Amino acid sequence: MKNLCSFCNTVISPGTSPDDPVSHEVCESCYTRIMRTHRFNIRKFLDMLDAPVFLVDADSNVLVANTLAIAAVGKPDSLVRKNFCGNVFECVNSYLPGGCGKTPFYPDCAIRKSVNETYATGKQVISSSRREYTTLTSS
Ligand SMILES: [Zn+2]
Asked: Ligand 1 centre and the CA of 62: distance in Å?
């Protein structure tokens, strides 16, 4: 997967071959400029989407969730943001000693694997057990 900045076309990650599908994201420089210049509110943007959306970092910590996502988990925003996905979704493993992200089961976590796979391939994981996909982005 080759990733380009949507705003300045900077190559964020080159991919592994010229035939790699292309996805878009925002480079650090554009992100900082947009946030500063336009006082962009990511929560308002995510609320325009007609699906529950959790924006997570590389460690599966929830950075922002839209209103539909907050409603889906039935928790206040303060218990969703800056919390591991497993805690937010109440994964059974999150209750084990060490908690979400620190149990022996974490490397096999279906949520983490699905997020990482989607990030790497640009394809939505429909069922992690059956490996079904649908393409999210390509150009
Ligand atoms: Zn950029």
From this structure: 23
